[in-house]
Structure formats: C-alpha cells, structure tokens
Amino acid sequence: MSRSIRRIAINTGGGDAPGLNAVIRSAVLAADGRGWDVLGIRRGYAGLLDTSKIVQLDSDAVRGITHLGGTILGTTNKGDPFEFPVTLPGQPTTLIDRSDEVVENFHRLGIDALIAIGGDGSMRIASAFAAKGIPVVGVPKTIDNDLTGTVATFGFDTAVTVATEAIDRLHSTAEAHERVMVVEVMGRYAGWIALHSGVAGTADVILIPEIPFAMEHVCEKITDREARGRRFSIVVVAEGAAPEGGTMTIKGEEVGREVLLGGIGELVAAEIQRRTGKETRTVVLGHIQRGGQPTTFDRLLALRFGAAAVRLIDEGRFNNMVALDPPVVRAVPLEVATSRMKCVPVDSDTMLTARDLGISFGDGG
User: Fold this and answer.
1) Of 16, 144, 204, 314, which residue is the catalytic one?
2) What pTM does this model have?
3) Which of 6, 61, 107, 140 is the most buried (most CB within 10 A)?
4) Helix (H, G, I), strand (E, B) or coil at 215
5) Which CATH code of 2.60.40.3080, 3.30.70.260, 3.40.50.450, 3.40.50.620 fits the domain covering 2-154+294-326?
C-alpha cells in the first residue's frame, strides 16, 4: 500500500499535552523511512485554511524534541473548521462552516493522508473530515484520559505525576499548620486525574464528576480525622465535580469552544472552613499539569502511537484511531472512539481500593 502514499500531513489540536512532540518525531521518522514527504499543519487546521502556515517536517526538524513539552506545530481549541468563529467589526462572533476549504486545500497540496493528534473534540473533527473523504488516522491525546477505545492517552501519566508530586508537598505544610488543603485538578467531565493522583498521594477526600458529593460527608471525614488526632486533611477535587442536586462550577464561556470549568475548589474550601472551623486553603494546579517534560511512560506511549499511525497509513487502514490495548497498540474506528466519553467506573478496582483505604468520595460510602 505504501507505493500509493507520497505525502502525509500531521496536526495537533485541542489543549496541549506532554508527549505531542514525541508523536510528531516518531511519525516523521517512520514516514521518512518509507520515503514519504511530511507536512506539518500549524495550529490545528489553521494551516489548511491559511497554507502559509504549512511547514516541512523532516528528520532535522524533529531532532531532539522527544523530551520537550508543548508542540512544535502549535495547537488551538478554537479552530474547528466546521464551526469556525468569525468576528466582524461591531458584530457578535458567529460560527461558520469552512470545512470545504480544508478539504480543497488538502487535495490541492497533494496530501494523501492526515495524522490528526488530539482529544475527544479533535477526534470528532477528524471523524467528520473522514466522512468528507479525507483519509485520516487519529492519535489520542488528552491529559483527561477520557477517550473511549484506548486504555490510556499520552499526557495523562504526566498530569497525574505532577498532581501527585504537588499533593505530596502539600502534606507537610498542611500537617505543620494543622490545615485542610483543597487541591483542584483538571479532568473536565471525567475524574481520572483526581482519582489516580488522590489515591497515589494518600488524599483523605476525593471528589470526582462521576459521584455527586454532599458536604456533610466531606466534613464528616475531616472531623473524624480531627477526633483521632489527625489535625490536617487533604481534599482533591476534580474541576468537574458537583454537589448532589447541583451543577458544575463554570468560570465562563467562549464562542467556538466548550465552557471553562473551575472554581469548585474555592467553594469546597470555603464550605469546609465554615462548617468545621478548620483553617482551609485552596491550591489550583491548572495548566501546570499540561506543561513540562513528559514522563517515561508518556514518551514511550507517544512514540508507539506515532509509529503505529504511520503503519496504519501504510496498510491503507484509514478512519481509525490508534489505541493502547496492552500489550499492543491496535486500531479503533473513529466512530467508536468518539461514541461516548470514558468516565471513571465507580466499581473499578482503583475505586474499590480507595474505599478500602478509607478515602471518602463525599457520598457516605
């Protein structure tokens, strides 16, 4: 099949995640070894709307980037060509469909296949372009680990490692001052980061989107620890967590992108202090979880994904996403990968372990 491939393109979309550069390097080197030309599309699909943003990628262009955070191609979570935001002077921002321009420029540039690297939103866009005739192979990237069909996405392990290290550091200051520390972590609508970092960091309370919480149960855990002489507590809160009968806390909304979550940590901390009288502080890790060097696991997974994506192109297996199914990397149809969000199963082994360790999820369990 490789004889029909002469030129491929790569883009990175959505939020950045450690490991993006490793995927780019792996895919470029694998393609170069097959004699293919590789183009880099800057800032998601922007390079196919303004082709001056297209860059040539070869072995020199990707030398020494495996360990680097971010992405040499740039990324955006505001550039969906199917709902592209346009603002005219004196008028509100509107969304227009520019997908046909992308398809036209894709073919005009003589590109035979696209490797689309991104999270759930990027995979949905890739699947929509596949339906318009662009041969696509997806690579799952998200620190949230919420993509169906793959056991893990690269970026997740790094985010959990960063969060766990922060929780470790907060233990000593919380104990020294006999405070409650509330740590807000990313994850949007899934609680994977909060769960894994909270368990690994020996948190006392973990609040995740999958389990609505009640403040009386959260405070009960803290007062129980106080009665046993443990005069500090660590509470890990996923940004998408919500109280029973309540909704997620939203910082704002922007046209052409999802709502901005955040602020639940402050609300939980204020309520803990009001109810228990314990001095309570909040730490929001935010984009620290996205930046910096990828862990060894994420580097290796990203390199495996990049090479696997090229192999799928070589075999003509388009409209699939590469996915980790230990011990192998396999292909999952894009339609399946975007069919639903992968949330934390409340009866999973990690959840059961957390409850056996005495961690509260604010549900009285």
Assistant:
1) 144
2) 0.93
3) 140
4) helix
5) 3.40.50.450
